[in-house]
Every structure is written in C-alpha cells, then in structure tokens.
C-alpha cells in the first residue's frame, strides 16, 4: 500500500499570498524596448492589493450576512453575533471601497516612445488590474495649464485634451526616472 504524507503547510495559502502573486505577475512585466520608462510609482502593488481586497471583502460580506441571518433564525448563534457580522462586513466594505475610489486610476509607470511622439501610461483600474493606454504627446494637458486643486500635494491629474479620462500621478512618492524625458511629456507645447 502506497501512502503519501502531505504537510498541512502546503494548504496554508492565504489571500495575501494569492493577491501578491497576481499583482506581481501583472506589474512585474517589462515594457517593450521601444518605450523608455520615465516615471514610476513604487507603491502601486500596495494599491492593487487594496482593490483586490475590496473585491474579496465585498464577496465575503454578500455571502456572510445572509448566512449569519439564516444561522440566527436557526438558533445556531445569537442575534448579537449576526449584527456584529453585518456591521463588520459593511464597515469593511465601506472602508475598502472608499480607499479604492481614492486610489483608482493611479499611474504606476509612464513610458516615452523612442521617437518622442507617444507616451504609454500604465495605470491601476477599479479592479486592481494594470491597464495600458498609449497617448499622443500633443493630447497631454501640461500640469501648468491645469487649475490648482486641493489634492495637488497628494497627486496631480494627468489629463488629455481629447478624452475625459483622468489619471492620478503621485508627486510625493513617485520617482522621476529621467527628468529630461519627463519634461518632454509634460512641458507646454509651443505649437
């Protein structure tokens, strides 16, 4: 008889490890060599984790609240436990959705094409996934042409002339990798 002993540690994959793997596979990708990285936000993986946790928390809340009410009706546990589960679930959802709203469309990396006519912007969408958009440099609104906002110490808005999409560029913790190429993207065009 053939027996196999499995360690219980093999089955101890927690949510954080799974999300880290997904985020690293998404944000660990290299850009093609035709684009040169100009700006990087090193904490984009942490923001992606918030968005992924938001999805899992919402699913757990939608499953947990009806289940707790059903178990309360069946007298498995008291109504105080049911109300505690409800309050914790809804509070957690509100917190994570608020953080997710504040951090959605955050730019992780900005690339400049070698011919200096296009820029590729990699940003975080509402689901915690990386999205890439290629923008013509003539369509980028320079920071000097944008009105001052109360959020400017935290992030600047990356806007386009021909689109309503707005992205957030963190100025406090973001790293400008190539200042000259950064100015090529965000300087005021004299056309």
Estimated radius of gyration: 22 Å
Rounded to the nearest angstrom, the distance between the terminal CA atoms is 81 Å
pLDDT averaged over residues: 80
Q: What share of the residues lie within helices?
A: 25-40%
Low-pLDDT windows of residues: 6-16
The beta-strand count equals 7
Shape: elongated
How would you portray this structure in words?
There is one protein chain. The chain is of the alpha+beta class and 191 residues long. The chain has a domain at 50-102. The chain is 40% helix and 20% strand. The chain contains 4 helices and 7 strands. It has helices at 15-27, 44-73, 79-103, 179-186; strands at residues 35-40, 107-113, 118-124, 130-136, 155-159, 166-170, 175-176. The chain has a 5-stranded antiparallel β-sheet with strand order 4-3-2-1-7. It has a two-stranded antiparallel ribbon with strand order 5-6. Helix 1 (15-27) runs antiparallel to helix 2 (44-73) and helix 2 (44-73) packs antiparallel against helix 3. The chain starts with 14 loop residues before the first helix and ends in a 5-residue tail after the last helix. 23% of the residues are buried.
């Amino acid at each position: 008889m053939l027996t196999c002993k499995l360690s219980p540690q093999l089955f101890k994959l927690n949510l954080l490890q799974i999300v880290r793997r997904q985020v690293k596979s998404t944000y660990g990708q290299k850009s093609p060599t035709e684009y040169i990285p100009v700006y990087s936000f090193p904490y984009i993986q942490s923001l992606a984790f918030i968005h992924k946790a938001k999805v899992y928390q919402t699913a757990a809340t939608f499953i947990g609240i009806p289940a707790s009410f059903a178990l309360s009706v069946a007298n498995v546990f008291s109504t105080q436990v049911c109300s505690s589960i409800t309050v914790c679930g809804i509070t957690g959802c509100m917190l994570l959705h608020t953080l997710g709203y504040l951090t959605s469309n955050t730019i992780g990396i900005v690339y400049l094409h070698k011919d200096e006519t296009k820029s590729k912007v990699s940003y975080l969408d509402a689901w915690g996934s990386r999205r890439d958009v290629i923008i013509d440099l003539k369509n980028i609104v320079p920071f000097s042409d944008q009105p001052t906002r109360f959020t400017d110490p935290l992030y600047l808005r990356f806007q386009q002339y021909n689109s309503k999409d707005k992205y957030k560029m963190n100025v406090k913790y973001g790293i400008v990798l190539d200042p000259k190429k950064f100015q090529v993207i965000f300087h005021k065009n004299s056309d």
